[in-house]
Design a protein that fits this description.
SPX_dom; single chain
Length: 257
């Protein structure tokens, strides 16, 4: 599948409010074609009006990525802390050994938190995919520009991109792992847990789960596109496999000791 089509699919499958924050790949491709066919293109040692305009637009795109990514990252850190505190509060009050034990309320509240935690996990995976696919788009459009102009813009610009906040996903990947650990320890699956969906519970093929699986497929395909490592390669994928994602989605009754 060509990258432009893959990007279009990802944008369509992204969360509400995310669509306008992806790389304007189609517009950049049109710009490259227009610039190289115009009389203004007089490439000489990296100094051309075409390159200046192209770089200006790419820098604007990176600023857009950074602003969106950092806003989401900050929100995720806050939400992770709030979810963790809610779990502790419910356990310490309504749990079996809490100050006001209440099995029905405990099960109800913990089920709500689990659903939020699973969806939160999916959103974070989508943000890692956002970083990956926009970086890949930058590398591809730079390759097109250099190929058609004889320029050498790709390497220095990619080196700059590697230092940008939107490319640095270590914190989000760490939160993803912590989220999985919390789900595994606080909401362990019961051997007799039904796989049939319950009202309000996330199920395979719906909502964030569907988008998360699509994102994981995209990240794998992007990495599979090149058999050799280079300056432009993405780092190894440090995210859960499909089995892990699906196991998080399956409904499991809250167990009370």
């Amino acid at each position: 599948m060509k990258f432009g089509k893959r990007l279009k699919q990802q944008i369509e499958q992204s969360l509400p409010g995310w669509q306008d924050n992806f790389l304007s790949y189609k517009e950049l491709k049109k710009l490259v074609r227009r610039l190289i066919s115009s009389s203004s293109l007089e490439y000489c040692g990296g100094n051309s009006k075409a390159e200046a305009e192209f770089v200006y637009l790419l820098n604007n795109e990176m600023e857009k990525f950074n602003a969106f990514f950092m806003e989401q990252e900050e929100d995720f850190v806050i939400r992770h802390k709030e979810l963790t505190q809610r779990i502790e509060r419910v356990i310490n009050t309504q749990g079996p050994y809490g100050t006001r034990p209440s099995p029905p309320e405990y099960r109800e509240e913990m089920a709500k938190i689990r659903k939020e935690m699973v969806n939160f996990h999916g959103e974070m995976v989508l943000l890692v995919n956002y970083s990956n696919i926009n970086y890949t788009g930058l590398a591809k459009i730079l390759k097109k520009f250099d190929k058609r102009t004889g320029g050498v813009l790709r390497l220095p610009f990619i080196q700059k991109a590697l230092r940008q906040p939107f490319y640095t996903t270590d914190l989000i990947s760490k939160l993803v792992k912590e989220c999985e650990t919390t789900i595994d320890t606080v909401f362990p699956p019961s051997p007799s847990a039904p796989t049939k969906s319950r009202p309000g519970m996330a199920v395979p093929g719906e909502g964030i789960f569907r988008n998360t699986v699509a994102a994981l497929l995209t990240m794998r395909e992007i990495r599979r596109g090149s058999s050799t490592y280079s300056h432009f390669s993405l780092p190894p994928l440090n995210l859960p496999d499909f089995d892990v994602i699906q196991s998080l989605q399956l409904f499991s009754p809250i167990q009370i000791p």
